[in-house]
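So, can you check these tokens?
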Amino acid sequence: MSVKRRRYAGRAADRTLERAIAFALDAVVNISDAPRLHLSRRSVCAGVLAGIAVPSIGMTRSPMPNRAINPTGVSYAQAHLVENPTRWLFVSGQIPVDAKEEVPAAFEDQCRLVWRNVEKQLLAAGMNLQDLVKVTVFLSDRRYREANYKVRHDVLGGHSPALTIIIADIYDAAWLLEIEAIAAV
């Protein structure tokens, strides 16, 4: 078989594969109650060939906000539902160290600084605090629970991600807390 003929056969096989994948994906999306996905054939094939279960390149979706399940009214929920996210962000533990490598002495100052550091990571990914779906706060001592609540409520307002607070021995004795987070859009 000539090189030209092999190229043509390859393109025909690609088109057949694209049609089969598009048909299968269309069937799955139309059966479920999920919002309709708008995918190019190229992005579907690229995703499938790369082994990605749900392709994200070239994909748009109807807005499906994340929502709190059983919110408590005090800046956290018992659960947080994420439906059809297109992007996830896993924020490593943020610490109370500023750009000058300094650590404030007071707990409230450290707490506000850590939340600013979390927000910087979110903004770098094109997200914001309203996109948080899970937050884990590590406190160095139980006595900081009330101050932590007040700052968290001030920072998050009515937003209620799932939340866990752990009393732990933190890596550096000067750090009174650390916060890690998960965001989704």
Observations:
- The mean pLDDT is 78.
